[in-house]
Specification:
Helix content: over 70%
Largest sheet: none
Number of helices: 5
Number of domains: 2
Distance between the termini: 71 Å
Number of strands: 0
Keywords: Membrane, Transmembrane, Transmembrane helix
Radius of gyration: 30 Å
Order of helices and strands: HHHHH
Length: 93
């Protein structure tokens, strides 16, 4: 508690102006270099998690669709018309 009181007593107008100037300059630098920083962050993300190729994305989508159709068929075994329609969709996929 005494540390806070002594810090507040030592705080002057000049220190407040310096702090405000430091914050303003830091904010200006962030705004000025924002495109560069965003590019660096995107590059780092691509290093950690690279993009999939079109073929890989297509295969993943087809696998997801096939699994979805299979789940729908297993769920709707009680209704023959829906099951037949889902089988026809699965055969086309």
């Amino acid at each position: 508690m005494s540390i806070i009181i002594s810090a507040v007593q030592d705080f002057s107008l000049i220190a407040a102006i310096k702090l405000a100037l430091l914050i303003a300059v830091s904010g200006g630098m962030l705004v000025l270099f924002k495109p560069l920083l965003v590019g660096c962050v995107r590059a780092a993300v691509l290093v950690v998690k690279p993009k999939m190729s079109k073929e890989q994305r297509l295969q993943r989508r087809q696998m997801r669709d096939a699994m979805l159709l299979k789940r729908m068929m297993n769920r709707s075994e009680c209704d023959p018309s829906h099951a037949a329609e889902l089988r026809a969709l699965a055969a086309r996929a």
